[in-house]
Design goal:
single chain, about 200 residues, mainly alpha, two-stranded antiparallel ribbon
């Protein structure tokens, strides 16, 4: 038997070759066939689970539809809106439409009642005409009907008293006060005292 070269340790096989386990070569560290089979099995199992879930959901939907109670006759049909007043679904869009309509009404001309000659105009133009013409005069209803203002502490009782006719029920008869100025002094001052006769 031959001696191994210096610096090498090995195992001598019967056929005379050397085998060093530290530098031995392995054909593969991974079982490729096992990995492939695992992936194929995983895909098949996932497909089976998906099909099973789909079939189960279909069965559950049919069971629910069969056991679903009848809709109440008071329930609104599909597509029918509830009665007024309803909540706004798009308040900001509704606000923009409302402001646009108000702006159009305040800046344009148009008829309100064409038969009676009532129309509207831009608000700025209306202000100018109002300043030029002024407000219409108030009807003289107060003169015809009369307005009696109750004095302090007096109640009008909710009645309308014609002008120039004070409430007789609240009037108190008063005797005329005697004149405090002598007739002679009143005559000199250009006044005629009550109850005095002019001198001849």
């Amino acid at each position: 038997m031959s001696t191994p070269p210096p610096g090498t340790e090995g195992t001598t096989h019967p056929h005379g070759s050397l085998h060093n386990p530290d530098v031995a070569h392995e054909s593969s560290d991974i079982n490729v066939r096992g990995v492939i089979w695992f992936l194929v099995t995983l895909v098949v199992v996932a497909a089976l689970v998906y099909v099973s879930m789909w079939a189960m959901m279909r069965v559950l939907d049919k069971i629910e539809a069969r056991n679903d109670p009848q809709v109440s006759p008071l329930a609104a049909p599909a597509g029918e809106l509830p009665p007024e007043p309803r909540l706004q679904t798009t308040p900001w869009a509704d606000l923009r439409v409302f402001r646009a309509a108000e702006e159009k009404a305040l800046s344009s001309y148009g008829w309100i009642d064409q038969k009676n000659g009532v129309a509207y105009m831009p608000i700025e133009k209306a202000k100018e005409l109002l300043l030029q013409r002024g407000l219409p005069a108030r009807a003289s209803a107060d003169v015809m009907e009369g307005t009696y203002v109750a004095s302090s502490g007096e109640s009008d009782g909710g009645r309308s008293i014609p002008a120039g006719q004070p409430d007789q029920s609240s009037a108190v008869a008063a005797k005329p006060a005697p004149p405090s100025t002598p007739p002679a002094a009143a005559k000199k001052g250009g006044l005629q005292a009550l109850g005095s006769k002019p001198k001849a």
